């Protein structure tokens, strides 16, 4: 923010929006003895202990004049492809086959019962309402449905979200975790010394505990179960 204001002092302004907050949350005005432009004080630091939110920084900017470099030059950046792209029939058949062969999961039945469709979004397969793709095929979408998984070699790398939602229906491709390993697993740690007769190294498995609770995904290697829990979960 300081660099922006210093470079474009007449073209950019930080608006004061503090009146919209229930408590003050002013931005800092100096860093290591260096004074920042006065307008920085209008930016906000939202603190969890004051506002009950995640902690983050926010500022509302107004452009008051043309930027010198932008005069007569278009600086518009083309938007990223946010569409829900239909997949080929052969790709859908492959996904159905992988889930059936590796996990004993009937995706076609799930799609039919839930009126769902498989689409490609941000280079990942998603399950979304079929009505969405039928009625609004060109709608830019930030997020919809749940991630199914990523194309992986000739197969599919199932997502954490998919395992969390449907893992209890898997009839195969499941590894059990003993109670003594649960604490380490839920902290995101790998389980070393893990052995499971008949399991194949390099494969991705759904992980459960003895009570049948879904614990995400794991990748088996020699003597180790690699933890694939998302880092935001621990």
Provide a brief overview of the structure:
The protein has 234 residues and is an alpha+beta fold. It has helices at residues 2-7, 48-51, 89-103, 107-114, 130-135, 160-166, 182-186, and strands at 12-14, 30-31, 34-35, 44-46, 56-58, 61-63, 85-86, 116-121, 124-129, 146-152, 155-158, 174-177, 191-192, 204-209, 214-221, 224-227.
Descriptive notes:
The chain has three domains: 2-70, no CATH class; 85-163, Nuclear Transport Factor 2, Chain: A (Roll); 173-233, Roll (Nuclear Transport Factor 2, Chain: A). 22% of the residues lie in helices and 28% in strands. It contains seven helices and 16 strands. It starts with a helix and ends in a 7-residue tail after the last strand. The protein has helices at 2-7, 48-51, 89-103, 107-114, 130-135, 160-166, 182-186; strands spanning 12-14, 30-31, 34-35, 44-46, 56-58, 61-63, 85-86, 116-121, 124-129, 146-152, 155-158, 174-177, 191-192, 204-209, 214-221, 224-227.
Mean pLDDT equals 88
Domains, number = 3
* Strand/helix succession: HEEEEHEEEHHEEHEEHEHEEEE
The major pleated sheet works out as: 5 strands, antiparallel
Number of helices: 7
Radius of gyration: 25 Å
Spatial order of strands in the largest sheet = 7-8-9-10-11
Task: Name a few traits of the molecule.
3 domains; Nuclear Transport Factor 2, Chain: A; single chain; 234 residues; 22% helix; 5-stranded mixed sheet; alpha+beta
């Amino acid at each position: 923010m300081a660099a922006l204001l210093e470079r474009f002092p007449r073209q950019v302004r930080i608006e004061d929006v503090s009146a919209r907050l229930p408590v003050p949350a002013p931005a800092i005005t100096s860093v290591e003895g260096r004074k920042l432009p006065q307008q920085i004080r209008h930016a906000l630091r939202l603190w969890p202990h004051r506002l009950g939110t995640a902690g983050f920084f926010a500022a509302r900017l107004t452009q008051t004049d043309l930027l010198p470099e932008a005069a007569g030059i278009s600086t518009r950046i083309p938007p990223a492809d946010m569409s829900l792209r239909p997949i080929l029939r052969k790709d859908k058949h492959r996904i159905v086959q992988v889930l059936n062969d590796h996990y004993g999961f009937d995706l076609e039945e799930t799609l039919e019962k839930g009126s769902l469709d498989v689409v490609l979004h941000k280079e990942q397969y998603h399950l979304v309402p079929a009505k969405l793709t039928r009625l609004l095929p060109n709608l830019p979408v930030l997020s919809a449905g749940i991630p199914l998984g990523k194309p992986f070699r000739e197969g599919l790398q199932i997502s954490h979200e998919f395992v969390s939602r449907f893992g209890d229906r898997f009839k195969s491709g499941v590894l059990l975790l003993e109670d003594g390993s649960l604490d380490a697993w839920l902290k995101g740690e790998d389980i070393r010394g893990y052995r499971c007769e008949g399991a194949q190294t390099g494969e991705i498995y759904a992980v459960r505990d003895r009570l049948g609770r879904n614990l995400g995904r794991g990748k088996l290697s020699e003597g180790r179960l690699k933890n694939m829990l998302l880092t935001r979960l621990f």
